[in-house]
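hey can u run this one w/ MTE bound, need the structure tokens asap thx
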Amino acid sequence: MPIPRESSFTSRLRTPAVSARIGRWLGIAFTIAFLTGLVSHWAQAQTWWIPYPTAPSWGYRLTQGLHLVSGTACVPLLLVKLWTVFPKLFQAMPKPFSREGVLTVLERGSIAVLVAAAIFQLASGLSNSAQWYPWGFSFRPTHYAVAWLAIGALALHVAVKLPVIRQALGSDVEDDALNRPGTQATSAGLTRRGLLRTTWVATGVAVLATAGATVTPLRRISLLAVRNGKGPQGLPVNRSAEAAGATDAAQDPAFRLTIAHGDRTVELSRDDLAALPQQTRTLPIACVEGWSASATWTGVPVRDLLDLVDAPASSDISVQSLQTRGAFARTTLQGSFSDDPDTLLALQVDGEDLDLDHGFPCRLIAPNRPGVLQTKWVHRLEVIA
Ligand SMILES: Nc1nc2c(c(=O)[nH]1)N[C@H]1C(S)=C(S)[C@@H](COP(=O)(O)O)O[C@H]1N2
Ligand SMILES: [Mo]
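ok here u go:
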């Protein structure tokens, strides 16, 4: 088969008039995904000099929900956009050592980076939310690094294309001024308006289908939502006690929670914990994978427990789990969180003792904290700074 030329593609739909209109929404969705991704990284990295805030308690639920929804919206938008610009791959190259040649190589290079980075972000993000890790790298640092690459290449791309974008958006979508060479004057099938409408509908469906992971009334129609809200006590479970290898230790009557500050330690059984003054708070579990659910938790404020070992205000705490398998057995609770009266070591959810899968005998629940750091099966709180 001979290699096609740019002019071999004759469809009127493959035009900057369409690409720019889809590109505008793709740019908006990508930027939202980038910014909310930064928030998620900030919440999890815990090393930035501005501490991540504990309020509003639903903040991470909102930003991470937006992250998943905007990222998913990018998928149909990117596919259609790539289809509209595909013929440009076969564009004739200007002389390589001319000024125009150098500029073309730079521009195409930046687009290659942009396309590769965008596809990588969408693919790795989607498979992460499906808990499918067919790769050998660590997800979060890689997704974070490539995000900077993608947003940089996107900014460059928009800057280079600004004159074309302006012209395209300033004229009617059926206008022929920006047509590529070889474009047919009329088309029998889908109009450009029709293609755009189809794209918006597909994007809307993708958005609704993911938003259900966060917005409870949408859950029934959420085909793409990874967690369907089922789980003991009406709350989804990401890793069960069985999977975490915590089943035996969590049910052992000899269980003791240790609170440690230097040489000072206090050990409490679950009954001891239950005998302390209890607080009840309604706080969400907001998983980094996009699903979230609100529940009412009852337990002992972490600050009250720290008082038992005279921990100073704003203490950073290492929260340690009984789990024997997998990541997240230890998390750090920063001082702003350990001071917050809403941060609980919960014994109950919605008025019942925690299910084994929700962290029995006790679990951490703090406001505005990514789900992955809401440690279950806690057996030790240790002042680290
Ligand atoms: N010890 C421990 N705690 C954990 C996890 C874990 O793997 N181990 N998973 C976390 C994740 S990713 C989420 S989203 C929440 C989910 O809480 P749930 O299962 O009670 O809904 O628990 C968190 N707590
Ligand atoms: Mo999670």
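Residues 139-170 form the longest helix (32 residues). anyway lmk if its weird
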